[in-house]
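Journal club prep — side note

Before the paper discussion, L.F. wants everyone to see what a predicted structure for a comparable chain looks like in token form. Sequence:
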Amino acid sequence: MRVATAMTDVHYVLHAPQGDTYADLLFTMIERLPRRPPVTYTTFQARDLGSDTAQLFKDAVSSAYDRFKPNAVLVGSSCTAELIQDDPGGLAQALNLPVPVIPLELPAYQRKENWGASETFYQLVRSLVKAPGKSTSVSPHKPRCNILGPTALGFRHRDDVREITQLLQAIGIDVAVIAPLNASVQAIQNMAQADFNVVLYPEIASLTAQWLERQFNQPFTRIMPIGVGATRDFIKEVAALAGVEIPQGLEKDVRSVWFSRSVDSTYLTGKRVFLFGDASHVVAAARFATEEMGFEVAGMGTYSREFAREVRDAANKYHVEPLITDDYLMVEEQIKGLHPELILGTQMERHIAKRLGIPCAVISAPVHIQDYPARYAPQMGFEGANVLFDTWVYPLMMGLEEHLLGMFREDFEFHDGAAPSHLGSSRSQVAQATVVPDKESVQIALPQTSAALTEPAMWGTDAEKELGKIPFFVRGKAKRNTERYAMEHGVTTITVETLYEAKAHFSR
């Protein structure tokens, strides 16, 4: 469905019982495509099992071709229909349709979705691609490449393709075919005419790229351009494959590099992150997290068993134990044991993070409808690095904000009974603090208690340095609360210990 829906003139006939008809929901409500997916179901019922379900399938294929007139037909069975063993491929071939019919045998009980999409793309290309003819042109042409892997219902595939296409054109490389996303049957037939292939999503396109390399001597890229460093390496790789010089000025809008070195981000350095998703995005995200964000990888894993070796190699680099599983409960147990400060994962990990109260950002499918934004939001290339920086930092900043609100929730401005500051105070009687200017610092005159000192405490040198590490927008409140705590507890000199004792006191 992801491959057929991505293309422009391919139709998929699925042998499936009534109830397995969920394509419309997936593609029109989640990805919000403006058209129905090109899928026809046989939708046999229980009473049909006593009759000829094979004839039902042949009738469905014939009617789908007559109605939609596709240039190629994919046929297959759902997991339930596999048990009937009607042989959709043989039945469809017997109809002698005037277009290619590509049978798909996808063992749903043994394999997962990404493997199925990869096998579908591979079978499609293998059935349709044609050997390139001898060129009669004597004039040199710009190097050409194919972009392989983006599909319908892919995580940010639409925007990634746009970003990488612009990048390749800026380098001086023409994009011949993008497949399967928005590709036609004729485009697939002409894929062998390109000089090399760019594999954006290895889980979908690696098998196809390897076959094209064996059959037509087309090399392919190995680097996913996620993050500034990886994008620079990707540019070097494609320039070498194309035999061109790298032009200047490709990084004119890279803001994530500066942002990651800014003052605010120093409060994020060293955060422990846990990564989980498809193998390629996890490996690429780990590199971006450590090299460009200053995070520490606390754990990582994947549900893509076919790419387990790549994840194990990356985990060894970061000195963590990899988790290779499709059991979300095992993922949750590992997260509980590692206590990360940020989770980078799939929609499933977002649910886990919500239960555990940990900030989370999504880096990989499976995803939620909110991960198909109307705006331009790639994950790859230099603009993708900017998007990643924003996406990953915002959950942490919200966590910082919630922590500070908890720390100062007893403050006269922040406690639960306080009205919003921009609407004015609704409190009838509140002990107002009076700001008294002083040459050395701003002190606060507070109602005295029997145990309180009448003179404000002095700040020790170490305590002043520690106070300077608190973000400026709450530093004044931290200072006032600490001085209030010191006065009420008879402390004459504020030390670092006093500062943290005050923090713990106001966090209760």
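L.F.'s comment for the group: The two ends are 53 Å apart (CA to CA). Keep this in mind when we get to the figures.
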